[in-house]
Every structure is written in C-alpha cells, then in structure tokens.
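ok so for the tutorial part 2 we go from a plain amino acid sequence to predicted structure tokens. step 1 is just haveing the sequence, like this:
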Amino acid sequence: MSQSQVTTHTIRKTDQPTSLVLTEAGEYHVILAEAGAEVEIAGSFQLAGSGQLDLQVIIHHQAPHTRANTTLKGVARDRARIRFVGRIIIDKDCGDTNSFLTERILLLSDEAKAEAVPDLEILTDDVKCSHAASVSRIPEEQLFYLMSRGLPRAEAEALVVEGFLTLT
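step 2 — the prediction. this is what the tokens look like for a chain of 168 residues:
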C-alpha cells in the first residue's frame, strides 16, 4: 500500500464489535457512523534491516454511544524505522462514547528508530477517551531472568518479542 492511498472503513451497529486487523503501512480512516457501533482495531508489525513503516489511523466517532479500542504494536531491529500516528476524533453531540488508543514500539538495536504520535480531538462532553504510547527496549532484567533459566540470549529475546507482539 502506498503512503498516498487512504483506506476507509465505515462501521455500523452490529451484534458483535467489528474487528479490523491492519497488516500494511498506509493511512486508515475508521468512521463510527451509527449509534451503538463498536470496533476493535489491531496491528502488529516487525521490521528489520532498513525497513520503514508509516502507519496513520484516524478513528472518527460521528454518532453517540460508540466504542473503539485500537492497539498498535511494533518491533524495530537493525536500522528499521516505525512511525505510528493515531488520532481519535469525537464529533459534537456524540456523548456516551468510549475510545482508547495504544501505540507501543520495542527497539532492538541502537540504530532502530521509532515514533509514536497519539492525538485526541474531543468536541463533546460525556466521553471516555484516552491514549497510551511508548517506545522502549527490552528490560535487561527480563532477558537476565530467561537466560538464568537456561535460554540463550537470542532465544530469550525472541520469546519476549513474541509475547510483546501478541494482540490478545
């Protein structure tokens, strides 16, 4: 998907929350268009070498009584670069809305780069809306613990990365 391409998903009320899994870079617009609409958005990415990933997700609540939960995770090693931009927009008169955005990136080398940019635009009252963003390394204590149980460093790191990237 080229960076200039925009993918739009319009979410309507259903018996179960709609599930969207993002697997490619690009710009995604998710519109909650009907009262009672719910969406779970997830993306999990791993880059190596000189790979680059730019991902922008806009969650736009255009109706009241809507819910959205967005979780983006990335791992960058070597000289890879990850950029997550997430934005939640809640329109006027869209009360009883609940939206949460999580952006987490794990760096596995000194040359890897990452940026997590959350943004909220709330134009009404009676909402629950928040975000969390982090860019970090694997804590040495976690690796030490696994290595003290007999795992080589590379296997310990792989195990931590696998757990980190799990979306459930």
